[in-house]
Amino acid sequence: MPVSFQILSDISLVHVKYRGFADFASTLAAAQACTEDPAFTPELPHFFDLGDVTGFEQDFAGFFAMQAQLAAVYPPKETDHLGVFYAPVGPAREMAELARKSWDGVPHMVLRILDDYDQAIAVLGLSRDDLAAHLTKI
Q1: What is residue 20's three-state secondary structure?
Q2: What are phi and psi of 131, to 5 degrees?
Q3: What is the bridge-based pairing of β-strands 46-56 and 13-22?
C-alpha cells in the first residue's frame, strides 16, 4: 500500500508515510483505518512523510472530493490542528502544496511544509532520534 500510518500515543503523534505513487483510494483507506483506531483522536498532530513519493493522482475533482471526506474527520474546534509535511522538491512538494491549499481558509488547520526532514520533525518538538525510537517499521 502506498500509504501507511502509526499512531504514536506516547508522543501524541500520527505518523503517515507515503511510498511510490500516491492515489486517493489508498489515502482514504488509510485515513479510515486511522480514524477507526481506538488510539486516534482528531487533536493529535500529524506528520506526513512524503520523502518517497514518486508521483500522485492528478484528478483534481477526485482530490477535492477526497478532501471533503477528510474534512469530516477534522471538524472545526477551538484549538488548532497541526499537520507537518516533509516534502522534498518534486512530486512530494507538489502533493503537499495541493493538500495545503485545499485547507486554505479553514481556521483550525495549521499546515507546514518543509523540505528538510530534521526541520520538519523539529516543528513537532522532536528530533530524528526521538521519532525513530517510537516508530516500528512501516
Answers
A1: strand
A2: -65, -45
A3: parallel
pLDDT digits (tens, 9 = 90+) for 109-132: 899 999 999 999 999 999 999 899
Instruction: Please calculate the CA angle 135-92-32 and round it to the nearest 5 degrees.
Output: 55
Which backbone phi and psi does 21 adopt, to 5 degrees?
-90, 120
Contacts of 112 (CB under 8 A, 6+ apart): 82, 83, 84, 85, 120, 123
Could you tell me which of 58, 74, 12, 20 has the C-alpha nearest to residue 4? 20
Alpha-carbon span 135 to 138, nearest angstrom: 8
Q: What are 31-45's pLDDT values in tens digits?
A: 889 989 999 988 899
Residues 98/85, Cβ–Cβ less than 8 Å:
no
pTM exceeding the 0.70 threshold for the entire prediction = yes
